[in-house]
Task: structure prediction
Amino acid sequence: MSRPRALASVGVVGVIVGLAAGGVGTSAVWALLALAMLLAGLAEVGSG
Amino acid sequence: MVGTIAPLVKEVRQTKGRLGTAQVVGLHFLSSLAGGFALFAALRLVRMGAAWLAPGLVDASDHAAAVVVAVLALGLFVAATLRWRLPMRDRQVPIEWRFYHGPARASVEYGFVLGAGLFTRINSAALYLAPVAALLAPSDWLAAPPIMIFAAARAGIVVTRSLAVVEAPPAKTAERIQWQSAARLRFVALQLIAVTAVGAAGITSLLLGAGRW
Result:
């Protein structure tokens, strides 16, 4: 995994864990999850 | 997954039959959404069954859903960092479908399988979160977006790339190299626009819907 991607992943996971642990709410965690799914889908840019 | 939708687009452009490019890519996109929805519906049925058999367990999972998803995300990050091999069906869509089934049917079949996401090679560890989230989400409105967004994003980028590849100059030419660097920039721009749009929509919906979900 490249350094920028690793840092981005740490950031996303950190925010998810922080929100969940801080009790901010399920909807906030799900919003980030939706963003992660968007990135996962767009990562198929090499496909066609 | 290379060489599945782009050849179908190329085929309908060359034959100039009843079926057009828009139909092929449109069918692929819609069937991808259908594949995502089928997975979502199947997982919610499993949850309904679990709620009927063990209502206490489902109530408890509702309260812990966010924490479970967060912990799983952390585990997947560690697994991806350490390059652990995660369970998956390490196959791509059958290439013979486009030879035997024709452009329209093959486009629908490829879209459905790729939209469901779990039945081909998994390139992003984050995808494992989608079925877990669909099972644990307290409401259908929360359960659907992760899977459906993945299906739409995957189909969208595949369709965009397929349309671009068909227009590409012949391989191993100077024009091809120029085209590739320009196309790479366009795809990065497209990804940034999509991420920004969804991020903004997510923040807006969070602000407007805070406390209602």
In short: The mean pLDDT of chain B is 83. The two ends of chain B are 37 Å apart (CA to CA). Residues 174-209 of chain B form the longest helix (36 residues).
